[in-house]
Description:
By secondary structure, the chain is mainly α. The protein has helices at about 1-20, 30-40, 45-50.
Amino acid sequence: MMINSVINLAKNKLARHKAMGKDSNLSIVEVAQLMDLVTFGPNPSQAKNSSLFFSYSSN
């Protein structure tokens, strides 16, 4: 359940980034990390530390 909410949060942030276009505050590294999270899911070490997922800046 928590993994799904983390992935949904990443998807929402990517959607906002896309909608904002060049006005988005996300860096290319942050976007890549979010895309990896959506594509591959969290790795086991990240799953233990769930606060890591919510440290991305929100737009």
